[in-house]
Amino acid sequence: MQLLKYFLFFTPVFLFARPSQAQMIEDPSSWTYEAKKISATEYQLIFHLDLKSGWHIWAMKPGGDGFQIVPSFTFDKNAKVKLKGKPAEHGQSVTTTMDGIEGKITYFSGKVDYVQTVTVTGNTNITGKHEYQVCNDNMCLPPKDRNFSFAIK
């Protein structure tokens, strides 16, 4: 009798509980990081993004209806580092209309670089995290946080 109760309880759970499709898809983004020396005290911190075919990431100012989760970069406090301006994005952007989004929307596919210029006073590690969301024509994956570290010597 006890076995029958377990069977009756768990059978619907296994039949009707399906994991979300977005949770089953591997992150189609690949990130690498580079510190490029510009002068004795100035560096460009470059976040290289390579997206698998069919995927895109919203531009930092995407337009549209304002519901897009755009890339953001948060730097840990460091007395030896001063940020100059905001990160800039470099790549081939696409501006178009999309079903379900009001107005024109801008995004990047393939490769895109995000560049933050900093002034540094001595050897240090620059750390923080960035948040991003990638989408294809059918869905967007949940936003993802990723830690980063740049060694300045």
Layout of helices and strands:
Blueprint: H1 2-16, H2 21-24, E1 29-37, E2 42-51, E3 56-63, E4 72-75, E5 81-98, E6 101-120, E7 124-132, E8 134-135, E9 144-152
Antiparallel strand pairs: 1-2, 2-6, 3-6, 3-8, 4-7, 5-6, 7-9
Give descriptors for this structure.
mainly beta; 3-stranded antiparallel beta sheet; disordered N terminus; 153 residues; 2 helices; 58% strand
Question: How would you describe the overall organization of this protein?
Answer:
With 153 residues, the protein is mainly beta. It is built from two helices and nine strands. The protein has helices at residues 2-16, 21-24, and strands at 29-37, 42-51, 56-63, 72-75, 81-98, 101-120, 124-132, 134-135, 144-152. Strands 1, 2, 3, 5, 6 and 8 form a six-stranded antiparallel sheet that branches. The chain has a three-stranded antiparallel sheet with strand order 4-7-9, with no helix packed on it. The chain is elongated and about 50 Å long. The chain starts with a helix and ends with a strand. Mean pLDDT is 88; it is low at 3-22.
